[in-house]
Each structure stands twice: as structure tokens, then as C-alpha cells.
Amino acid sequence: MKHLLTTEGIDPAQATAILDTAASLKQALEGREVRKLPTLRGRTVITVFYENSTRTRVSFEIAGKWMSADVVNVSSSGSSVGKGESLRDTALTLAAAGADCVIVRHPASGAAHRLAGWLREAGTSVVNAGDGMHEHPTQALLDAATLRERLGELRGRRIAIVGDVLHSRVARSNVHLLTALGADVTLVAPPTLLPTGVASWPVTVSHELDAELPSLDAVMLLRVQAERMHGGFFPSAREYSIAYGLSERRLKLLPEHAVVLHPGPMLRGMEIASAVADSPRAAITDQVRNGVHVRMAVLYHLLAHEEETA
Amino acid sequence: MNPLILRGVRPYGEGDPVDVLVRDGVIAAIGSVAEEGAEVVDGNGAVLLPGFVDLHTHLREPGREDTETIATGSAAAALGGYTAVFAMANTNPVADNEVVVAHVARRGREVGLVDVHPVGAVTVGLEGVKLAELGTMAKAGVRVFSDDGHCVHDPLIMRRALEYSKALDVVVAQHAEEPRLTVGAQAHEGEQASRLGLQGWPAAAEESIVTRDCLLALHAGARLHVCHVSTTGTADVLRWAKARGTEVSAEVTPHHLLLTDERLATYDPVNKVNPPLRTAADVEVLRRALAEGVIDCVATDHAPHAVQDKDCEWSAARPGMLGLQTALSIVVETMVRTGLLDWRGVARVMSERPAEIAGLPDQGRPIEVGEPATLTLVDPDATWTVRGAEFASIAANTPFEGMELPGAVVATLLRGRVTARGGRIAE
Ligand SMILES: [Zn+2]
Questions:
Q1: Staple partner for B269: which of A39, A192, B70, B317, CB 3.0–4.6 Å?
Q2: Nearest CB to A132: which of B194, B195, B315?
Q3: Per UniProt, where does Zn(2+) 2 bind (chain B) (predicted)?
Q4: Cβ separation of A196 and B191 shorter than 8 Å?
Q5: pLDDT grade, residue A79 (50/70/90)?
């Protein structure tokens, strides 16, 4: 594996290998006082974030550090990134500075793909940490890791993804990955928040959350960004909450074993009732914890694994 | 100017090769001709067509001379077989007054490779709010008005523009894009854009404006021209409007006749254009609509851009691609080789209809004795490989880079004078 840009077309064996690595890393580090493995010593990992996301950036940073890589952060304020330098020039600078891996978050869909193209000659790996409305593959991997912990094998499991699928890179990456791993995915959203051509996706579509809940093994809520409320995608936060929010009443409709996921940050009271978010059924803090191990596994497969097998 | 003989050429690709004698800028004889001291262009059976007319060219001067000038764009046009181009008004400053349009026309004459006709803006600053001085610009020779790049979206302004233009005998050319439906749009709204996470540009944003404008044009009794038709629905609307007697004409670009949104998979902005590349089904419908005359003509939407405006992330890239030097070959590939058009049909869509739409009296004329020798000679059997860097344009943003294309321009004549020959600008 050279880059991780997307989960579309991902080889299920490859995905499983990453998830297995993440699980064994988690086990190896559990209870340790010094959580540091020497695997990526001497390797340089640079995070370039054109969009603020403390959550994702810190997760990658810790993952790199626990693998003993040298981790450098570039964020959009106060750097050339914020001064209008082109993405291409930034890419060439990072390559010249000796980056082994660039982790990029960017508001433009496809930015990570373009970056990988510009870095081809330098041989630098690229991890897509979220590009516009396109994909966020490590989020999907950490979601899958969390679901595997709670549910075991994902084959045949019924998972609903609820909310703003249209603008959600998390939803896209999860649809590709979860279906590749054999899960049955249902998208639950109003028609305004579903992408054109969703009928050709390997999913089923529903507008009725209540009807889906009793047969689900997991429900994954998506963020509803504030600007959508003014874009006419739905009439009001209240109506959204009534139709698609995961209330305490709805939690009771779910089977006993079912898991609740949310990529954060959460809009408590609208997307998810506070009591649901804090219930043991919710795996939201597990997602954050698994995020570090999954990202360690991704860096391992990109930067260390290949040399061993080559 | 010495007389010229085009030896062994086939007007409209029909019949046995003949000689065409050009004297004093007009066709003096067709048949077997001999003329002392005449320069000879050996045709080897090449197809002779009236010179091409492009209703939709962005020459970027004034304002972005780093990407194209009237001189370089004229050279690209002549090499592409064009003898007249319409330079769009979205320059900087905008061509919304007689000073700018007069400047563009004068520079065009100084360069002298093609007739450069400035397009005047419909509204001041292309802002869609206040009508530009259409009458003053028409007096300065403007035949076509357009806010291209922007849609004249206010229905009242569009109505007034159509009504007002009637007295001037000019045409209003609309870039049909309902702006509220394309906020943030990056690609054709469909499966491909959904997959790539690119905000959609729905076909209905074009079709709703074209429908509205056809109704307004019919109501006003005015002439409307629809720029770069890209969807199946627009073709349907045009068919319906024409059947009702609307004076509407329409153009399609070469790239919309060939390329689809499948090309977006790499996120390479060389494929970014406005309106966006549509689906294979749309391409099929557009080809047929052009063959049937529902769409009147081909126009390039030649849009040069600097490297930094294209070699970037998709959403930051400017829309547009070069078109002048590849248009003929794309028409050969999509319309001639598919049997949808013969060479007379090519003459119709690339020369005669655009000249009629813009009201040019001496372009798109029949190949007959006494007519202006404004001609394009085409080798239908030639193939060539596209190299953007070798184009006469300053910019090199062609989506056809590296493609092998059929059909090549052998020579271009403007009123008897050779402007381009063998792939080079004539001295
Ligand atoms: Zn346009």
C-alpha cells in the first residue's frame, strides 16, 4: 500500500489486515507505562491541515509518536499554508524537506489525490485525513474497528448511517468499507440529504428511522453542520430531531446488543439525546481510542510493512 | 496580391478533385484552371470548406494577456481553420462599452489573421443588474451580446435585453445557468459527482433557464442564442421551442460532443469546464441534435488558462479548456466518422449557421465563383497527436493532450490570403 486516499474499491483482505494490526497494537500497548514502539524510528510524518480538526490531527500525531516517527504539524494559521501558497508548492516543499508520509486534511474534494500525484516522484506516501465531501478513510477504519470489538465479524450485520449523507465524507468512506467487509448498510435521511445517484450505491435507502431500528446491529449518526439548517435541506432543527434524532425512545427500539456510533463533535439534543450519548450502548469514546490504534496500523502498513514484504 | 490556385481540391468533399482559382480575394474560377504566375497550393484531393466561424472564443485580452492575446488567439484560430471568431466580453475591463469593443476589433484588424468580432456584455460589468449600452456598442459594430461566464438570470433584465436588441438586429447569447441551483457546483450532478464528493451542477439549472428564455424570446419576438448546450433536456426544449416558432439558435462545444464526466475520476482540472462534462447519454443526444439541426452549430468556448489556475485542486481550478485547434478534429471524430454529418453538414455547423446567426455577410458563403475566398482546406485522412505546448495559444490546457485525432487543416484563406498552411501561420 502506497497511499490511503479512499476506501472505495479497498481489498477486504487489506482492510482486515489493517484492522487486525490495529487490534494487536491496542493489545500490545494496553496497560503499558511507556506506550512507544520503535517501528517508525527515523521516519518523518507531516500532518498538513487546511481545515481545523483538533480531534483528527491529535489522533494522527499521537499515532505517529507512539510509533517513534518524527511528527511535524503544519496547520493553516501562521504557515505558508495560510498565506495562499498553492497546494502544489506546499507538496513540493514537504517532499524536498524529506517527508516520508504526508497526512492531509483539505476542504477540496480530491485534494489528497492531487497531492499524491505531485508527490509521485518523491515517493512520499499520502494519507487522506478528510477531503471536502469526498472521503475520510481512517474514520471509516476506526468505525469498523469499534464495530468489530463490539459485534465481532461484520459480515451480514445491519448498519444504518443516519443524517447528512450528501455532504459527509465519513458516510462515503463507511459505505465503501462496511460493504466491502460484508455488512448490509442502510442510509437513513431525508431526500434532500442523499446524493444524486444513490440508487446505484450498494446500500438500501430509507426515510423512516423508526422502521429500521428493530433490525439494526449498529446505528451510525452523522454530523449535521449548522449551515445546512439555513440551506433549505430541512425545515428546522426541531423537525430534524423529531425525524432523525436518536432519542431515548428510539434507543429502546434497538436490539439489546446494538451499538451507537457518532464521529463527533455531537449536537446533543438534536442529533442524539444526551442520555443516549452517555449510555453504555454508545461507543463514542471507543471510537476516539481506536482512532489512534487504527492510524498507527495505517502508518505501519504504509511505511514499515511494505519494506518487510518487498 | 498574387493569384492563387488550389490544385486538386474537393469542395464539400464531393465529386472529383478540381482546381480553384482565387484572384483579388474572390473565387475567380472553379474547374481546370491555368494562371501565369499564380501561387499553387497542392490539395491532393483535400476537402474544401467555407472558413469556420466561432461564435464563442475567449481571447483574454485585455486583462489576462499571460494566458492569451488577440494575436496568439487569432493564430490558434487560423491554424484551426477559422476565419472569424467572436471574442467574449468577460475580459478585464469587461467589454461593456464602445471603448473596449473598439479596442478588441482594432487589435484584431492589426493582427489580421481572422476577423475578430467583439462580443458586447449584456449588462454593465456582467453583473446582471443594469443593461449595458447595447445601442452604442451595436453602432460600433457589435453583432452578438453575452454575459458569458455569467447567466443573465433576472427574468426582467433578460426580457428587456431581448426586447431592446430587436431594434438593433443583434442576437443575445445566453450562458444558461440558474445561479441558485449551481451554488458551489463543481461537476455534473450525477453518480460520478456523488462518488467523488463534488458538489453537483444539475442539468435542470441549464434547462430551466433555456426554457424561460425561449418563452421570453417568443413573447418579445426577439432572437435568442443559447451558448454551449450540454444536456438532453435542453435539446428537448430547443426542439419544442423551434416547433413553436421561437427564433432561437444554439451551439454545442466539441468537448461536450466527446467527453463525459467519467473523465473526472482523476480530479485533474484539465477536465473542469462550465457547463460541466455530462453523461454518455447526453453526448449521444447532443450529437444527434446537432446532426438534425436542433442545435445549429459548433462553438469552441476556447478558454485559455494559466498553469497555476489549472494545476491545483479541483475546486480551486478555473473552468475551461482550449478549443480552437482541436475543434475540427473532434467534429470529424464525433460527427463525420460516426456518419452523423457529411462534409456539407460540417460546413453548415462550423461555418454557414454561425455566420448567419451573427449576421456576417461575407463569412460562411457558398463555394462558388464570385464569392469571397474565405476558405478552409481539410485533409480528412490525416491523423495527428495533440501536444498542448505546441499550440499557438499561450496556455496549454487541453483535455485532448496525447490523443491521436483525425482530420487536419491543410490551409486557411481569409479573403484570398493564406493565413495558415501546413500547420504554420503564413508569413
Ligand atoms: Zn459560458
A1: B317
A2: B315
A3: 148, 175, 228
A4: yes
A5: low
